[in-house]
């Protein structure tokens, strides 16, 4: 692919972990033609000639993010030149928002993107989100003493977009008033504070709130995360009477994705494209449970080692599978138009969400994602 002398491009320092061998590259990205090339830093030569990478966007290339280029999972380490740094920090500024878990948390997350403000044109996206419990040190550092209890589950979100810090500060009061969040709703006051707050919330090893009990695993696929659909999917799940007990943003390495989807190998033709999608960037894992009229279960301070006994009213598997809809969104739009895949899926590959297929695998899927993949020491190294 020929390069126009005046064509705009951006440069990033990336690493590729190939079977334990860490290789360093400079990724040059051409947004106009949606193409990329890789330069091997150690060997001082081109590793991949300029190639079309239509699934890769400039907004995906923030520091600390994992992107997929021709099935290679590359971790963005830094910006490789001043122009790239200035542009990225202006267009894709990141900030942190924290608020107490409540029944409107999907609406709050959706509102943070500014979709309901007619004057907003900054195209905010929730790029990372998790449900967590702040410890004493966290509360002191964030200045939330007296507002947040030491055992209260919270939602922590990374909001990305042009002038994101000011945007979240401006709408914070409106969001708090609109959804009656009386306890606390925190947004970073400046870019420097946002940087260390995001590190505190997402890089510090901490346990998630999963109980790995009677629920079902739902994964918001990477393409849905990139498209900014995460808040609306969470919102839709809660509005249909389900509870969300745990939320975690994570990246599935390609060999992990292959093993996790092994059930479909040789069974459905979409197996490899599904693996490609999961390996292409972060997904959002949810532990979902049917709302039970016997009363909601409290999220424990320390996750349970043994699953709690199932309440008599629990039919999460059947109800959530029906709510997710058929794997083909076109069929879902015909027979279950309000299902997740009907609303958020495009085709059989990019169908919005994945959820546990077999009832006997519900607990093992939850344990695999929340106890193994999302365990603190692994999250902290990504």
From TrEMBL:
InterPro entries to which the protein is assigned, alphabetical: DM10_dom, NDK-like_dom, NDK-like_dom_sf
Pfam families to which the protein is assigned, alphabetical: NDK
Record's keyword terms, sorted: Cell projection, Cytoplasm, Cytoskeleton
Transmembrane helix recorded as keyword: no
Coiled coil: none
Entry's Gene Ontology cellular component terms: axonemal microtubule; centrosome
Family: Belongs to the NDK family.
Keyword Cytoplasm carried by entry: yes
Protein name: DM10 domain-containing protein
PANTHER family documented for this protein: NUCLEOSIDE DIPHOSPHATE KINASE 7
Ranges of residues in domain DM10: 6-92
Gene3D superfamilies: Nucleoside diphosphate kinase-like domain (3.30.70.141)
PROSITE patterns in the cross-refs: DM10, NDPK_LIKE
Compartments where located: Cytoplasm, Cytoskeleton, Cilium axoneme
Main location: cytoplasm
């Amino acid at each position: 692919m020929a390069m126009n002398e005046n064509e705009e491009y951006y440069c990033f320092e990336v690493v590729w972990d190939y079977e334990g061998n860490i290789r360093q590259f400079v990724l040059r990205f051409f947004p106009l033609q949606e193409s990329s090339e890789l330069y091997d830093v150690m060997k001082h030569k081109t590793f991949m000639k300029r190639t079309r990478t239509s699934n890769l966007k400039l907004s995906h290339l923030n520091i600390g993010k994992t992107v997929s280029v021709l099935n290679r999972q590359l971790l963005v380490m830094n910006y490789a030149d001043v122009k790239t740094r200035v542009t990225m920090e202006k267009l894709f500024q990141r900030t942190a928002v924290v608020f107490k878990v409540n029944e409107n948390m999907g609406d709050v997350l959706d509102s943070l993107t500014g979709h309901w403000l007619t004057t907003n044109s900054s195209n905010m996206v929730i790029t990372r989100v998790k449900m967590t419990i702040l410890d004493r040190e966290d509360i002191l550092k964030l200045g939330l003493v007296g507002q947040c209890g030491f055992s209260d589950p919270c939602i922590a979100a990374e909001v990305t977009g042009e002038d994101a810090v000011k945007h979240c500060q401006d709408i914070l009061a409106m969001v708090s008033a609109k959804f009656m969040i009386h306890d606390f709703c925190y947004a970073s006051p400046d870019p420097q504070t946002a940087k260390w707050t995001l590190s505190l919330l997402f890089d510090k090893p901490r346990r998630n709130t999963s109980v790995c009990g009677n629920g079902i695993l739902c994964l918001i696929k990477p393409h849905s995360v990139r498209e900014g659909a995460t808040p609306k999917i969470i919102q839709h799940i809660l509005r249909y009477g389900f509870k969300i007990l745990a939320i975690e943003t994570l990246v599935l390495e390609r060999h992990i994705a292959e093993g996790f989807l092994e059930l479909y190998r040789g069974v459905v033709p979409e197996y490899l494209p599904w693996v490609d999608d999961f390996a292409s960037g972060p997904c959002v894992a949810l532990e979902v449970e049917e709302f039970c009229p016997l009363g909601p279960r409290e999220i424990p301070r320390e996750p349970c080692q043994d699953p709690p006994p199932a309440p008599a009213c629990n039919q999460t598997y059947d109800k959530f599978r029906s709510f997710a809809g058929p794997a083909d969104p076109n069929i879902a739009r015909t027979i279950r138009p309000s299902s997740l895949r009907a609303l958020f899926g495009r085709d059989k590959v990019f169908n919005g969400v994945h959820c546990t297929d077999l009832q006997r695998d519900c607990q093992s899927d939850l344990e695999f994602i929340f106890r193994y993949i999302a365990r603190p020491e692994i999250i902290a190294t990504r």
